[in-house]
Specification:
Largest sheet: 4 strands, antiparallel
Strand order of the largest sheet: 1-2-3-4
Shape: rod-shaped
Number of strands: 4
Number of helices: 4
Structural class: alpha+beta
Order of helices and strands: HHEEEEHH
């Protein structure tokens, strides 16, 4: 072989070796670069998944809190509606009680007025020896002997006297109260009347308080 060709061949071999070495270095660096990018990409993916998981958790917590707030708001609305309804019922009951109380007061005032008128007429007509008119009015006054006292706003005490011919000052009485449900109740009936429950039931059915007072007096008279 020509010496010049051998030199050229040697140079080519050296160049090939350099190229192979450079290629190997390039490939290794490229592998390292790809590996690093892959790791960073994987880490980014993991970080993104973690962030998404945290966001989903926060969204879930916010939704739960929103649901709780909605429930609390609805409960408060229901409570407010219930309170408003209860207040209306109380106001209606108070109004009805006032009406019934005013009615009782009017009837009591009427009974008092009748009593006073009878007493006045008795004083005007009863002479020293007593006329027929005076005796009649005096007898009627005796039958209507009545004292009415207010115990409290919705409770009155009725006391009759001059019922018992043997003891005109003997007292017969009962207490009337108007309850929250606008019904009448009778207590402290002295002496006790066996038919009292029946009379009270009739009173609550008819609302005829004046008639009830007259019936009570008649029962007391029957017991004297």
């Amino acid at each position: 072989m020509d010496p010049i060709d051998e030199v050229r061949l040697a140079e080519l071999e050296l160049r090939c070796a350099d190229v192979e070495r450079d290629m190997a270095v390039f490939v290794e660096n490229k592998k390292k670069s790809l590996t690093k990018e892959g790791i960073e990409h994987k880490e980014n993916m993991i970080s993104s998944k973690d962030n998404i998981a945290r966001l989903e958790k926060m969204v879930g917590q916010l939704k739960n809190e929103q649901d709780r707030n909605k429930k609390v708001l609805q409960d408060r609305k229901n409570q407010t509606s219930s309170l408003e309804s209860h207040v209306k019922e109380i106001n209606d009951s108070v109004s009805d009680l006032e009406v019934k109380h005013n009615k009782i007061r009017s009837e009591v005032e009427e009974l008092q007025k009748q009593k006073e008128e009878l007493e006045k007429e008795a004083r005007q007509h009863a002479g020293p020896s007593g006329t027929a008119m005076g005796e009649k009015i005096h007898m009627y006054r005796t039958r209507m002997g009545l004292d009415i006292s207010t115990i409290k706003r919705d409770t009155c005490r009725f006391v009759f006297t001059q019922i018992n011919p043997k003891n005109s000052e003997k007292k017969y009485g009962f207490t009337v109260a108007v309850e929250e449900d606008r019904s009448y109740t009778i207590s402290d009936c002295e002496p006790a009347i066996a038919e009292l429950n029946t009379l009270v039931t009739k009173l609550n059915e008819t609302n005829d308080f004046g008639g009830f007072v007259r019936e009570m007096r008649a029962k007391f008279r029957d017991m004297s």
